[in-house]
Amino acid sequence: MADSAFFCTLSHEGVLAVRGADAGKFLQGQLTCNINYLSDNRASLGARCTQKGRMQSSFRILLEGDGVLMAMASELLEPQLADLKKYAVFSKSRLTDESAAWARFGVEQGDAALVSLGLDLPEETDSVVRHGALIAIRVSPQRAELWVPADQADAIKARLAAMLPEAELNQWLLGQIRAGIGQVMPTTRELFIPQMLNLQAVGGVSFKKGCYTGQEIVARMQYLGKLKRRLYRLSLGGTQLPEPGTPLFAPSHNSSIGEVALAAVDAGQNIELLAVLQAEAAEAGDLHLGTLEGPTLHVLDLPYELDRDREIQR
User: Residue 3's pLDDT band (boundaries 50, 70, 90)?
Assistant: First the structure.
C-alpha cells in the first residue's frame, strides 16, 4: 500500500470528546456507527448526518476513560461540538474539544516501532491496543494511528524519530486514499450521504443499531435505492492538488458528475485522489477535473468491493 515506512503528525484533525454516564446512549442516537460495538480493543469509523442523511462530519471513534473520543477534520470540530451540545442538554454527557490534550501520529509500515512502545497491534482493521496512556489503532493494512497524551508527545515523537523517518502529512493521506477511506472536509460538509463515501463498506455504518439522525434516508438507500454515486479512486498527472469539493465533468453529461473528496501527491509526482462520481459516468470513462477541458482522470482500483448483503449485517 505504501512506498516506505514513516511516521507523521496528524495535524489536520482535532479530537472531540463526549464523556459522562450517558455518553454512549446519547451518541447512539446521533451517529451512523454502533456504539455498542466499541470496546477497549476495537474502534470504528462513523459519521454524523443531517435529517436528510447528509454527512456533517466523519470521524474515527474509540472508547477512552469515561466516554469516547472522535478524531475529525479540525475545521468541523467547533460546529459539530456546538450542534451536539443542543441535543445533549438533557443528557448526563459532557462535550469538549480535547485536541490540545492529545498528540496523534500516523505510522506506516512501523509495527516494530509500536512494539518498542509496548503496543503489539493486531493486523485486523479497527483493532486497538493500549499501553499505559498510549493508544494504537489499526486503520488499514500496515497503517496505524498512535494517540499520545500531550505531556508525553515530545518524548514519544523522539522515540519514533529514532526508528522511522518523519514524513509530510501528504504521505499519510496518500495511504488513506489507497485504502479507499473517504473523509468529510469543510468544503464537502453536508454534500454526501454515507454510501457516497463508501462508508458502509469500511465499517462506518450499522444497519442493525436502530434510529439515529438521518437513519431513515441511509437505510432506505441501502435496502431500496440504487446507489448512483459512490467513491472512486483516480489519478491524474501533475502536482497541483485539487481541493475537496472540486467538481468533475464528463462530455456525456451537461453538468458536474462528481466532486473530489481527498487528494495527495504520489512518489512519481502524480496525483491520486478519491472522488464521489456518478457510477454511469465513471464506467464510461473520459473524466475531467474542474471543467470539461480539464486534466484527464484515470480510474484506479480500490482494495474492497461493495457488497450490500455483507454490509447490512453490521
Answer: low
Distance CA 209, CA 222 (A): 14
Q: How far apart are CA 261 and CA 182, in angstroms?
A: 6
Q: How many CB atoms lie within 10 A of CB 118?
A: 12
Per-residue 3-state assignment (H helix, E strand, C coil) for 109-171: CCHHHHHHCCCCCCCCCCEEEEECCEEEEEEECCEEEEEEEHHHHHHHHHHHHCCCCECCHHH
Query: Under a CB-based contact definition with an 8 Å cutoff, are residues 228 and 279 in contact?
Result: yes
The order of strands in the sheet holding 94-97 is 44-49, 55-64, 67-73, 13-19, 94-97
For 189-198, the pLDDT digits (tens) are 999 999 999 9
Please state, in angstroms and rounded to a whole number, the distance separating the CA atoms of residues 49 and 288. Answer: 29
Neighbouring C-beta atoms of residue 284, cutoff 10 Å = 14
Q: What are phi and psi of 87, to 5 degrees?
A: -95, -10
Give the residue with greater pLDDT, 269 vs 82: 82
CA distance 71 to 92: 22
69 membership: H or E segment, kind and range: strand 67-73
Pair 72, 182: CB distance under 8 Å = no
Q: Residue 169: is its pLDDT beyond 60? A: yes
Alpha-carbon gap, residue 220 to 187, rounded angstroms: 26
All three cell numbers of 45, joined, read 469509523
